[in-house]
Design brief:
Length: 325
């Protein structure tokens, strides 16, 4: 039996569907408020609960051989940041403890490239790049960094934990959407007249799903693996999103200071309006340095061989256009 958290989310949904295609017996752990339309058609047992509730987490982990912990509060702004730490850190600890008590053989923890601090010179980061809590920007990154430390701590207690660090996944089914998906969506809707000088490593969400399975099958406990594909500037990403469409990528480059002012104003107003900001200040701060990655460790150790990113961007564009239509 395989337990998956976060199966109603973007990455978790693809992980669940990939494992289902391999004939795995699935158990999905989700909140009572989760939208189950995203898991429609999946042959899976559902356990309703909350990561913050150790009793429901223990019930979900019982008699499972493998756990894929994909669930997380993935937001660049939160009116009450404490909620993010409760889910991402305390919830992860609850699940790790439940898995240890249930004698789970392999625990795949979905972390983030965001737990690795970007290099000062823009060089691609690796799993060994120096990072610390003080180097993390914003509550999301800090909470994921602390959750990763919890995962490492349980490795020393005998749980077979493998950590994966996806970069910026793109593709169909980005319902919320993720911050990367929001960039593509904003561009398609004409809300991105300018760009800033930054960059990301993009990866097909389907490859991320397969990478989770490879980590469970071939990963070494206590190790982490960056799941990524291509390093691209923001302007290159927007050019890919514009391919075959009517909208052209912006030519105006916005200075970082102007973006910071926009983020500060937008985030300040969000606190008053109690609505997510159009331009999260943490997102602007993260974009100050390009987040490029070297994914050779996952290629060599896991056999992770991601596809070119252009088809995934095209699928994301088609999906967003269809969803908005």
């Amino acid at each position: 039996m395989v337990l998956i958290t976060g199966a109603t989310g973007f990455v978790g949904n693809h992980v669940a569907r990939f494992l289902a295609s391999r004939g795995e017996r699935l158990r999905l752990f989700m909140r009572p408020s989760s939208d189950r339309t995203t898991v429609a058609g999946l042959d899976a047992e559902v356990v309703v609960g909350d990561l913050r509730d150790p009793t429901s987490v223990a019930k979900a982990a019982r008699k499972c051989d493998t756990v894929y912990h994909v669930a997380a509060e993935y937001r660049l702004w939160c009116r009450n940041p404490r909620q993010m730490y409760e889910t991402n850190v305390e919830g992860t600890r609850n699940l790790l403890e439940a898995a240890l008590q249930a004698d789970v053989e392999r625990f795949v923890h979905t972390s983030s490239i965001g737990t690795i601090a970007p290099s000062a010179d823009g060089a691609p980061v690796t799993e060994e790049s120096p990072s610390s809590l003080e180097m993390m920007t914003g509550d999301y990154k800090r909470s994921k960094f602390l959750a990763e430390r919890e995962a490492e701590r349980y490795t020393s207690r005998g749980l077979g934990v493998v950590i994966v660090n996806p970069t910026a996944p793109v593709g169909e089914g980005d319902f919320k959407p993720t911050p990367t998906g929001q960039i593509i969506k904003d561009f398609l809707e004409g809300r991105m007249p300018a760009y800033i000088n930054t960059g990301l490593n993009l990866v097909d969400v389907r490859d991320v799903a397969r990478g989770h399975w490879l980590a469970a099958e071939r990963g070494r406990p206590g190790e982490r693996y960056i799941l990524g594909s291509e390093n691209l500037t923001l302007r290159q990403i927007l050019a890919l999103a514009s391919a075959g469409g009517e909208r052209r990528p912006p030519r105006l480059r916005l200075p970082y200071f102007a973006a910071w002012v926009a983020g500060a104003f937008s985030t300040g107003w969000a606190r008053v309006a109690a609505k997510p900001p159009r331009v999260p200040l943490d997102g602007v701060r993260m974009a100050r340095r390009a987040m490029f990655a070297d994914c050779s460790k996952a290629r060599e150790a896991l056999g992770f061989d991601p596809a070119p990113i252009q088809p995934a961007v095209a699928r994301a564009v088609e999906w967003f256009q269809r969803s908005s239509g």
